[in-house]
Design a protein that fits this description.
Structural class: mainly alpha
Number of helices: 13
CATH class: Mainly Alpha
Distance between the termini: 12 Å
Order of helices and strands: HHHHHHHHHHHHH
Helix content: over 70%
Length: about 325
């Protein structure tokens, strides 16, 4: 098992290096480059631009800039923002708790509801419930996240006035738990909706494949009750592809959080990314890209290790 984990970690290292090289190159290929926000300002002269290049090290060759930036990332110095000169790592870490709260809430709801709907759909195959669940999942997967967000704001915030339309707290109510829950409800519901549809479909397919295996028929022939067959025999084998799905879902969860946080004004990493993109804060964008890449790769590693622990045959692959 240790050899398998070490192998997977060694595979992640060149992947992170590749992500950093491609991301760094794309930032410098963007229209206007890192100094676009300065060059478009008519009050800044060419001499000012040259001084700014020297301050940020942009007068050096690209490969020198990359190696200095990579060394800083490795040592914990992620650079400084163009506006304000704040440490990039501090700026990102300030937004991480809000994003983790939103993503964790949405993912937890999606897994519980999605697995319940998928298992029930597999057990009652071709029933009215199964057809309704399939139709609902196709509907949820067919519309973009921002549309659901706008509809949720229109219905629950503007028409019914049950929930706030955005933000994390009411002004003056910072830190209050129930106020946080009220603001968390809509973005969590919107972010979880598409994930629920995906999990219900995968769970249904996985359980349909398992419950028709010979060992399940043998368990039925021995007179075991349906709950025992489902949770003791079918569940451990059906859950393996779902654990792998969890690692694959994280990039989509990040992209969904980006849209959701922008719509609802949630002060997380997604909102920070949009603001940094608008202001062309390339150090922040690079830092967020590497932070997200590390989180996704690490989560996939954890998912692979969990599958390998359940199925020892994976370790030999």
């Amino acid at each position: 098992m240790l050899n398998y984990v070490l192998r997977r970690i060694l595979q992640a290292v060149p992947l992170m290096i590749g992500v950093s090289i491609i991301g760094f190159g794309l930032m410098h290929l963007a229209p206007g480059g890192p100094l676009a926000v300065y060059t478009l300002n008519p009050t800044i002269t060419a001499q000012d631009i040259e001084r700014i290049k020297v301050v940020f090290g942009l007068d050096q060759p690209v490969y020198v800039q990359y190696f200095k930036w990579a060394l800083g990332m490795f040592t914990g110095s992620w650079g400084y923002t163009f506006f304000g000169g704040r440490p990039v790592l501090v700026v990102i870490l300030e937004r991480v708790p809000a994003t983790l709260l939103l993503m964790g809430s949405a993912l937890s709801i999606a897994i519980v509801v999605g697995m319940f709907v998928g298992i029930l759909g597999a057990i009652r195959r071709y029933s009215v419930f199964d057809y309704l669940a399939t139709t609902g999942a196709m509907f949820a997967l067919s519309f973009p996240t921002f549309w659901f967000g706008l509809m949720a704001i229109y219905v629950f915030a503007l028409q019914l006035r049950w929930l706030p339309s955005g933000g994390m707290y009411e002004l003056g109510a910072e830190g209050e738990f129930f106020d946080l829950l009220r603001h968390l409800a809509l973005p969590t519901m919107v972010l979880a909706l598409v994930i629920v549809a995906t999990w219900s479909r995968y769970t249904r397919s996985s359980f349909l494949e398992v419950i028709h295996q010979d060992y399940i028929r043998t368990a039925r022939a021995k007179g075991l009750r349906a709950p025992a067959i489902l949770f003791r025999h079918a569940f451990p084998n059906a859950v393996k592809p779902l654990i792998a799905l969890l690692g694959v879902q994280l990039p989509f969860l990040f992209s969904g959080a980006l849209v959701t946080e922008t719509i609802f004004g949630w002060p997380g990493m997604g909102r920070l990314f949009v603001d940094a993109l608008t202001m062309k804060e390339y150090p922040v964008l690079m830092g967020m890209m590497m932070f997200t890449a590390f989180f996704v790769i690490f989560s996939n590693l954890i998912a692979d290790v969990a599958v390998a622990m359940i199925d020892p045959r994976i370790r030999l692959a």
